[in-house]
From TrEMBL:
Highest classification ranks of the organism: Bacteria, Pseudomonadati, Thermodesulfobacteriota, Desulfovibrionia, Desulfovibrionales
The protein's name: Electron transport complex protein RnfC
SUPFAM superfamilies linked: alpha-helical ferredoxin
Gene3D superfamilies referenced in this protein's UniProt entry, alphabetically: 3.30.70.20
Record carries keyword Membrane: no
One Pfam entry name: Fer4_17
Organism of this sequence: Desulfovibrio litoralis DSM 11393
Keyword annotations of the record: Iron, Iron-sulfur, Metal-binding
GO MF entry, a single one: 4 iron, 4 sulfur cluster binding
The 4Fe-4S ferredoxin-type domain, residue ranges: 329-359
Gene Ontology cellular-component terms listed: membrane
Length: 417
């Protein structure tokens, strides 16, 4: 077995919590920035920064108190130094005193309408399922993965792909957080069976889940292979699979009742619990990684991650790994012609013909891609890994799917095969 594909580690890798983050670059994905959020204005932790019209895209909050330095289309930069936090706290106290002196109502003293107000906890267990969905969006969590109609809900307790190493430690040390998430999931989902997929030999037990053990070799951690292994059928009808980091984030909000402000991420084989918006450059410094000219910084795992054009980018709640790939350590992808070796056909877990799919996609024959069942491609990256011609297989497939209007489902899957 190729060691790269092994999703477990001989020893649990400790999760280090990072608190002393000086600058945050809070990501935006088409969000509308709130009118009161302006450059050089102060903001308190948990205050609403931006909202989105799409109900499946959660709102954005200030992960930490500080001063807003910059607002762009893709991020909000917050100065979180001790001086900036002290200024924000002082401004918040002054605002509260003035508001109370004017006799202003509760609407004014709300973190969703004023950045000078720190967020207050919400008791999510008291809400109806409909109100819970709205509340979770307001707290930075999309309820979509947990509300899909299904009879079987699978929590994927495996590391999603090579380059990610947090799963074992997260399950061992944060079982209470996962349990808190399950209480909310059971209110949102109509599933009657909750399964925790674990590597063989793992001793985790979380009340409410039935353990199912699998051989932790990539790509078993992806939705379709895992569902097939656990259910014994290739049909994903009535089955929902959600990755551990998504459930962990839900559990953090369930426990605190406050907007999500931190997440888990693996960086060069080390795990960190850090603020959303922590710059990639800051995380690389934590592992003494110094990118040189022509090096590649990958956001995501070895098989499905994508290169960054700049390390001045803040992490999002769904970012699970950062990899520093030194120049010359892996072959460079290029549009070489297919040599008909058949290695990609042999390794494809979905029994597709990546050699033909990549040709059709390369020459924009998208109807032929559809005839070759490109919608069943899980974008595992194995075909590109074994390709001796170094063809950009996964990139071809993504372009073809985009042209055909096929949406990639990276975290959940519920469409019948």
């Amino acid at each position: 077995m190729n060691k790269l594909f092994n999703l477990t580690f001989p020893e649990r890798l400790q999760i280090t919590e990072l608190d002393d983050i000086q600058t945050l670059l809070v990501p935006l994905r088409g969000h509308d920035v709130c009118k009161y959020v302006k450059k050089r204005s102060s903001v308190m932790q948990g205050a609403l920064l931006a909202s989105h019209q799409d109900n499946d895209i959660p709102d954005v909050h200030a992960p930490k108190s500080g001063i807003i330095k910059e607002i762009t289309r893709t991020y909000i930069e917050i100065d979180c130094s001790k001086e900036a936090q002290a200024t924000a706290l002082e401004n918040a106290k002054k605002f509260m005193e003035e508001a109370l002196a004017k006799g202003e109502g509760q609407e004014t003293l709300n973190s969703n309408t004023n950045a000078n107000i720190e967020a207050k906890p919400v008791n999510l267990l008291e809400l109806t399922p409909k109100d819970l969905i709205v509340a979770l969006k307001n707290l930075g969590i999309s309820a979509r993965p947990f509300t899909r109609p299904c009879t079987t809900f699978i929590l994927n307790g495996l590391n999603p792909e090579p380059g990610m190493c947090y799963a074992e430690e997260l399950l061992a040390t944060h079982a209470a957080t996962i349990k808190a998430a399950l209480l909310l999931i059971q209110r949102l989902s109509n599933a009657d069976k909750y399964i925790l997929a674990l590597p063989e030999g793992n001793k985790t037990n979380i009340e409410g889940f039935t353990n199912q053990f699998v051989k932790a070799v990539y790509p078993i951690s992806l939705a379709r292979p895992l569902i097939t292994k656990i259910t014994g059928t290739e049909s994903s009808k009535d089955v929902t699979m959600v990755h551990l980091n998504s459930v962990f984030n839900l559990g953090l909000v369930a426990q605190s009742g406050l907007p999500l402000n931190k997440t888990i991420i693996s960086v060069q084989g080390k795990n960190f619990f850090t603020y959303i918006g922590t710059p990639v450059s800051t995380l690389l410094e934590q592992v003494n990684a110094v990118p040189q000219d022509k090096d590649t910084i990958i956001l995501g795992g070895f098989m499905r991650g994508y290169p960054l054009s700049s390390t001045q980018r803040g992490i999002d709640q769904n970012d699970c790994a950062i990899i520093h790939e030194k120049y010359g350590t892996v072959p460079h992808l290029t549009d070489n012609p297919c040599i008909n070796c058949g290695l990609c056909v042999n390794i494809c877990p979905m029994r597709l013909r990546p050699n033909m799919l990549s040709r059709y996609a390369e020459f924009e024959q998208y109807n032929n891609c559809h005839k070759e069942y490109i919608e069943l491609c899980i974008e595992c990256g194995l075909c590109g890994y074994v390709c001796p011609a170094c063809r950009p297989m996964q990139q071809y497939f993504k372009i073809a799917k985009h042209q055909l209007g096929i949406v990639s489902r990276q975290h959940t899957i519920q469409q019948p095969v």
